[in-house]
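Service request form, structural biology core

Requester: graduate student, group of Dr. S.
Request type: structure prediction, single chain
Budget code: on file
Notes: please return the result as structure tokens.

Sequence provided:
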Amino acid sequence: MTRFIHQNLYIFYTAVLGLFTANVFIENAALEYVVGILAIPMLLFSVLGATNLFRILGAVFILIGTVMYIYADLPYYQIPLYLTSTMPLLTFLTVLPWMNSIVRAARFDRRINELMKANVTDLSKLYVRSSFTTYTLASFINLSALSLSQEVLLENMSKMKKKVKDSFISRTTLRAFAVALAWSPMEIIVAITVDATGVSYLSYLPWLLLCSVLVISIDWIWGKRTFNSISYTPSIERTNHKLDIRKIAFKIVHLLIALTIFMIIVVTIGNHFQLNFILAVTLVILPFSFVWALLIRRWRSFLSIGWKTWKMRTNGLQNFVLLFLSLAFFSNSLNETPFLQVIQEPFLATSEYPLVTLILIQMMYLVMSMIGVHPIATIAVLMEVLQPMYAFINPLSIGMVLITGALATATVGTYGVTVTMTSMNTKQNPYHITLRNMPFALLYGGIGTLIGYLLL
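Core staff response, request fulfilled:
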């Protein structure tokens, strides 16, 4: 029975999230309550397939939320209405695999990954090349880029000592991945921040790009110096592999043009229909992917890859369903109590010293990531806490720190998805990955904080 439920969760999730999205436009109170009622079995089913870490997080948020709900003396029949505020994020995650699928169907990922398969005689050059490859792919296919890049590097570096190989892969792939997502409209942290601060995505874009380019450039210099003295022996199978720069450049330009058009459409539709950023991105992804597949004549492979990927990813959403629904209940209950003001006090106390506030946000991300709290859970609390401070501190500055601080944890969050995945792929201790990347995380967060401070 459990297996049957797990294999068909995509039907239930899609139905509930489809109803929620439709009601955004219909605005029917009865339908809103129905969606809230359906969120309860969503939450229960998700517990079955969620990992222990997310079960613990979900249990904590629900327990604390329940205590605050009772403290606020709210009627029990309103509980379903307190579970739906994060459903836009779940809807966003549900359609995201279709954008990943068109990139894979057009074989953009394979062509760009050839950058790492070509003959390289210098480990420092391979660092820049593999970092650039991961950076480019992560901008479009998110987490899948990490797995692809690490797979290629493990193959190419099969003759290298394990210590060198582990250090190299955990640096170049995780750091490029974290930096690439800073400006991507398909990154959920970016979408959450845009909506939370009320600052348009286009206002963030140039500063996020600046931060991204600065950090990746510094890391390339850093990486080249670190690995310059280490000899590199590529695998025999790849020594004579020829690199077709023109084809790869064409694929990269194609992707950049597609992403630019996508961003223009999202912003235009969002402004015209007065939609929040997350909803605008969600509504554009599916039709944009289908039209893109038609234009490049990859319709059949897109449908084949897309359907399998979407079904698998949606069935595997239990962690995020549990996290987001429990977060919604916690956040909405918190807003009904005076406890929110208590949590806000440390931040309000530093309002006259904006730099201290921005550093405090960064440190909160790092500390929470060390104990296994997902950055989305951290940002959900910070959004409620920081809202009154928009009157004292430029929301754009706060947003810069919210984004860079959250993404920096992708390189050091010991219990996070990215570090755990890297640990499993390379068979190394996740704590070693955390310690190795901590200086980079502080650099990334520090540059984000500096840019945020200069924007005050």
